Amino acid sequence: MNEQHERPDIRAGLLAGAIGGLAGGAAKALCEAIAPPRPPGREPPPGVLADDVTRAVADKRLTHEQKATAANVMHWAFSILTSAAYGAAVEFWPAARSGFGTAFGEFVWVGFHELTLPALGATPALKDLPISEQANEFVSHAVFGATVEGVRGLVRAAV
Q1: Domain locations along the chain
Q2: What are the DSSP calls for the chain, one per residue?
């Protein structure tokens, strides 16, 4: 799809990206349901982060159910917000669509799953993660990015 707009529209880009993020988040969740990215028993990174913040702020631990809820909220919020930023970026820098959005998905994977989450202690250190887990995240983030781009492009063409 070759997008040409008379001029960039940041609001349209944000909206299209956010809607793409909903679809991308659903695609990523489906990938994780089909092929879980972590071994059974290891908490999802957003749940670990939410528990860490709760302990630091309120000196309390989250229950398993609270961690699961926090992980869901953080998954969807992260997906929508990063994708909205992507949609806005595409308005001014169309090359951001590289690889039909897969470059965006891989940027998210490297920036967060490979660097930020291990640095925050939410996942094991990279050297301790099996290649199968990293490959799973690589593929699911490519699916995420392509889905975001596909939906973003359709929504952007409509607005």
Answers
A1: 10-39+74-158
A2: -----SS--HHHHHHHHHHHHHHHHHHHHHHHHHS-SS-TTPPPHHHHHHHHHHHHHHS----HHHHHHHHHHHHHHHHHHHHHHHHHHHHH-GGGGTTTTHHHHHHHIIIIIIIIHHHTTSS--GGGS-HHHHHHHHHHHHHHHHHHHHHHHHHHHH-
